[in-house]
Design goal:
By secondary structure, the protein is an alpha+beta fold. The protein has 5 helices and 6 strands.
Length: 165
């Protein structure tokens, strides 16, 4: 297996399970554990692997959180496009993610807060006061069914009565 193929296979496994055991991954890919460790270290240094995260069901953990998706329309900056504005927004600790998107808005901001009021205050006092921000639209996530490819919570059995012949 060449180095590029090895890197891609490692990334596929890590994306699904960042806690994968290096020895197990080495066996699955048919290479040595040292090769896996070296490839991962190189990809971390190159910022191909940007971090490791755990997906938590905060509702089950008993933690009240509000997640909002905020569409933001902005005036891009000459010679900088959207980068400077996006950087300014993602530096706020409340901001979970920022994406440049196509469509009627320019940026999609994911935000987490303790209450609806806290999120609304962020939008009105911090986000909307940025000179380049033209408008925003805020959507609150009411329930997560699937997040990062993982189904959140068990599937419910059918509520229909079983009919036997």
């Amino acid at each position: 297996m060449n180095q590029n193929d090895l890197r891609l296979e490692i990334l596929k496994y890590l994306e699904k399970n960042s806690r994968v055991d290096l020895g197990e991954l080495a066996v699955l890919l048919g290479v040595s554990e040292v090769d896996i460790a070296n490839a991962m270290s190189n990809m971390e240094q190159e910022k191909i692997i940007c971090g490791y995260h755990t997906l938590v069901d905060w509702d089950k953990a008993g933690v009240e959180k509000v997640t909002a998706l905020i569409e933001v329309r902005v005036t891009p900056q000459r010679d900088r496009g959207f980068d400077r504005i996006a950087e300014r927004i993602y530096k706020y600790p409340e901001v979970f993610s920022v994406y440049l998107i196509s469509g009627g808005y320019d940026l999609l901001v994911t935000l987490e807060g303790k209450t609806l009021k806290e999120v609304s205050r962020f939008v009105s006092e911090k986000l909307s006061t940025i000179d380049e921000v033209i408008s925003t639209a805020t959507y609150f996530i009411l329930k997560k069914y699937k997040d990062y490819g993982t189904i959140m919570g068990p599937k419910k059995e059918s509520e229909r009565m079983k009919v036997t012949p």
